[in-house]
């Protein structure tokens, strides 16, 4: 009875209806597919030995990488967190009967739950079970592909089938994770939900090691002990990349912080100048932000900052660089743009922010625009010029875009 009460108290049931329906559908589908593929091959003594070897390596891997994996999960933020235990799951798909391959997934997730997530309270039970089911479902998709070339690959065709199985497994799991995040947070930016490219490279590397482990487990099994060590190194490398990204990102808005933006903008300006192109810069200030904080509180001010940051990010071109410059100021670097195009982008951003609906009421921004080489040869020159134009916009009544002196005829 106590377990039933804990289950009915899961936060899942408070989620939007479409999320609950999706999660339950995936879980039922995972269990049905697991039961369906279990009959494809019998469990034999050799399979049990391989399961024991891979399972022992999985346990060793978890014990060696618990701290690193937890930090990677935190750094992943709203994007998907991909555990490197997929090495053992994919190896199991290749060399184990489907029933034991599914048991490998449950062993890994069960062990991670009791050794990491449950002890530290870092993952809710319904999230843990959904994640396990996405991997189970992805595994069954790979099992179907591998049925075309059973066993460890010994020919180019068989290798191609295994690679295809790995690709199908990765895509199925990744899509299921991203789908539930998009359903849970429909207003979230897609690029935040899908995560960074580095995480996907790590997943590809993990599955490559899974293929290696599958080959080794059928030869000198002692060589398997090297795989967990390699995984720990991979995990630490991914953690360094995530921390580097965190150091470049403003915590409130997820835009570049001032230091990172200035560095990237300087490089972009140098590249543009070498091509003989023009380079635009917009300095943006949120109007009456102090009044918002004073009248509605800093929490409401943070909501406004995030909404404005999102609106600006969605209103610029794909190659433009958006940063939070401090307080209520934002900056945008726009390579290869004309003066009139720059003003048009600024006006689009102004209208987008003015149309926002936030708890504090309507908000507005004042924008100053500058262009290299007309208004300066360096990012600092452009910042100074655009800042002066932005203050001119405020003096003229706010909620407007002001070009730097001499920018327009």
TrEMBL record:
Keywords: Membrane, Transmembrane, Transmembrane helix
Transmembrane feature ranges: 20-41, 87-107, 128-152, 158-183, 204-234
Domain GGDEF: residue ranges: 277-406
Signal peptide interval: none
Protein's name according to its UniProt entry: Diguanylate cyclase (GGDEF)-like protein
